[in-house]
Q: What sequence folds into this?
């Protein structure tokens, strides 16, 4: 039989690994009696761990929700996975500092063999750039803002959103947070006209206090699909309508639907409504279609295409 301290740590680890345990199964796992399990549970409670129990012939136990975060017991794979995840975390303002603090705490309590494993993984691996689809920097979103949005969605509480320096505030009903291409979007409904809108979280001016509770309505479509379509059509810094000299079905077969909206023109051509964070990125996307096309605007995109074309011609000596 393990000593009491080791056994209690093993019991705590089991309770953290799944929601519910029958007393006899815990006893069998630890090689003790159900009476010993009851005594160890009582000791854990004295130490501040909120262990809930159901009385009965066998009894059942689960780790409840306490007032503070209890120490977590992790197996080797879990500890390494968390450490690697903390090292990889990007895209939210403040998470790098918080992640570094959490990683330092984890590193201090890792066994020597796991510190060696993590050091080996860190030294032997590298990461490519996150933003390879655009030459624009990734925006950062304050984690506190995301928490506020998520809680408003959970509690069905309206958001009070500012309209700029002098614009009026609006009350909007939040329904879904969507993370896509290193950006965060929130889908909201305006109750005044039943209009569904996709807003970028990094540009959101959230006012406090928020609005009252609302009764949700059924969305008109899948909200993730709504985000992808709306961002492709209007959510970028640069927008373009490109006439592609190919049937709509052929264009759709070559692109991800999130890239843009394809509007049939006739049996031999269509219009691709697309965008990106810069004209250089739009220019690169159009070239990747590998189809003939025509662009009238915006002027900045026309100029970029001319520059790109001349550069390609110089590359082959023409």
A:
């Amino acid at each position: 039989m393990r000593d009491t301290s080791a056994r209690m740590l093993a019991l705590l680890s089991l309770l953290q690994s799944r929601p519910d345990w029958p007393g006899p199964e815990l006893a069998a796992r630890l090689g003790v009696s159900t009476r010993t399990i009851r005594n160890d549970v009582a000791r854990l409670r004295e130490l501040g761990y909120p262990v809930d129990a159901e009385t009965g012939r066998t009894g059942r136990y689960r780790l409840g929700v306490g007032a503070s975060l209890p120490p977590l017991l992790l197996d080797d794979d879990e500890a390494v996975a968390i450490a690697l995840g903390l090292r990889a975390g990007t895209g939210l303002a403040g998470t790098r500092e918080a992640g570094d603090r959490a990683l330092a705490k984890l590193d201090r309590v890792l066994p020597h063999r796991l510190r060696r494993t993590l050091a080996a993984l860190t030294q032997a691996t590298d990461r490519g750039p996150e933003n390879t689809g655009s030459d624009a920097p990734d925006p950062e979103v304050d984690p506190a803002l995301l928490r506020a949005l998520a809680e408003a969605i959970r509690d069905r509480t309206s958001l009070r959103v500012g309209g700029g320096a002098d614009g009026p505030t609006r009350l909007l009903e939040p329904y879904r947070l969507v993370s896509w291409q290193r950006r965060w979007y929130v889908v909201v409904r305006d109750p005044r006209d039943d209009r569904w809108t996709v807003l970028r979280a990094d540009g959101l001016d959230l006012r406090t206090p928020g609005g009252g509770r609302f009764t949700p309505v059924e969305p008109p479509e899948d909200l993730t699909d709504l985000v992808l379509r709306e961002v492709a059509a209007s959510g970028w810094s640069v927008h373009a309508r490109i006439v592609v000299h190919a049937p709509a079905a052929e264009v759709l077969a070559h692109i991800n639907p999130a890239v843009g909206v394809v509007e049939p023109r006739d049996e031999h051509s269509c219009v691709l409504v697309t965008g990106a964070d810069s004209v250089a990125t739009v220019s690169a996307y159009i070239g990747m279609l590998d189809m003939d096309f025509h662009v009238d605007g915006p002027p900045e995109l026309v100029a970029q295409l001319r520059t790109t074309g001349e550069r390609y011609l110089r590359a082959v000596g023409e």
In short: Residues 103 and 246 are 53 Å apart (CA to CA). Residues 4-63 form a domain with the Arc Repressor Mutant, subunit A fold (CATH 1.10.10.10).
